[in-house]
Amino acid sequence: MNSSAFFTQRKVVFLLASLCCLLWGSAYPAIKNGYALFQIAANDIPSKLVFAGWRFIFAGLVLLVFALLGRKPVFQLDSRTFGQVAIVGLTQTSVQYVFFYIGLAYATGVKSSIMNATGTFFSVLLAHYIYKNDRLSFNKVLGCVVGFAGVMVVNFSENLLSFDFTLLGEGFVVIAAFVLSAASIYGKKVSQRVDSVVLTGWQLAIGGLALLLIGFATGGTLTGFSLKSTLLMVYLVVLSSAAFSLWTILLKYNRVSMITVFNFMVPVFGTVLSALFLDESFLEWKNGLALLLVCYGIWLVTKEEKVG
User: What is the mean pLDDT of residues 3-11?
Assistant: First the structure.
């Protein structure tokens, strides 16, 4: 069985995509706890970029080492291809995480995980205009509308009389989701010519280096190293290397809308894990309704895939 056939089997796709979403969902409480363990203040953006930079540099290096051990062409990329890989890294890792890390600092883990699901809508819409075999349909549109309604619900107050949304918090999380969607679609094209592990390793390392340099240039530092904080950093490194490499492989062999719709599961995992590890409020009717709508949106879009 070749790799293409393997990664297009629905059960395998479901399990691997769900694993990626579980890992990404766990990133919300992990990053929040990381800020506390490394003593990074909420308004200390430069240090947050340094924190993110080291995380992605190490994640990229881990993948590149694995690629070398597997005798993959790590250093055989021509200048044009390497430039395209660098673009993926600077957008998917650097630009996206500048917005994401800042947004996460000004919004709760629960809300951020739900707001980040907007990336699914962006991916489905962008794929419609880029890929001829990935067009919009009634179920896809309805699924996106229902899922987006869930994202909106979580921003209302308990009495529905006010809408709690800030540009620096929830707004930046949404911008990060859009950047990730666009970069992932571009990365799908690049992955057709570059080994997925090599691509992911280089893009994480390049993007992480850019974040690190920006952080240092603006006065950021990273202190507070201890056994606990170091273990958390190791977890974030493993999380990034595993989730991004698997996601790149899944996108390479499957339609964008079929894979990215699983991003709707990130807020489910992120909400539960944020409630468990950050002691954030979860048992509110709006959170339950938001997650219900988001999950129904997933079902609608994947239903299209089953009959298409």
Answer: 60
Q: What is the spatial distance between Cα 53 and Cα 43, in angstroms, rounded to a whole number?
A: 17
Tell me the pLDDT of the chain averaged across its residues: 80
For residue 61, give the nearest of 263, 257, 203, 178 by alpha carbon: 203
Ranges of each domain in the chain: 9-307
- Between CA 35 and CA 39 the distance in angstroms is 6
What span, in angstroms and rounded, lies between the C-alpha atoms of 7 and 262? 15
177-211 pLDDT, tens digit each: 888 888 888 888 888 888 888 998 999 999 999 99
The pTM for the full model equals: 0.75
CA 246 from chain center: how many Å?
Answer: 12
Closest CA to 170 of 144, 189, 151: 151
Contact 241, 29 (CB under 8 A): no
Tell me the pLDDT tens digit for each residue of 137-175: 788 788 878 877 776 776 665 555 555 667 777 788 888
- C-alpha closest to that of 36 among 282, 278, 281: 278
Residue 54 has pLDDT above 80, yes or no: yes
Portion of the chain with pLDDT greater than 70, in percent: 81
How many distinct helices (H) and strands (E) make up the chain?
14, 0
Separation between Cα atoms, residue 199 and residue 251, nearest integer Å = 13
Q: Are 171 and 118 in contact (CB under 8 A)?
A: no
Residues 6+ apart with CB under 8 A from 294: 114, 117, 147, 150, 151, 264, 267, 268
| Backbone angle region of 16, left / alpha / beta, with phi > 0 → left and psi within -120 to 50 → alpha | alpha
Give me the torsion for CA of 56, 61, 62, 68, rounded to 10°.
150
Looking up tokens 């062409």 gives: 73
Look up tokens 């579980």; give the residue: 22
113 contacts 21 by C-beta, under 8 angstroms: no
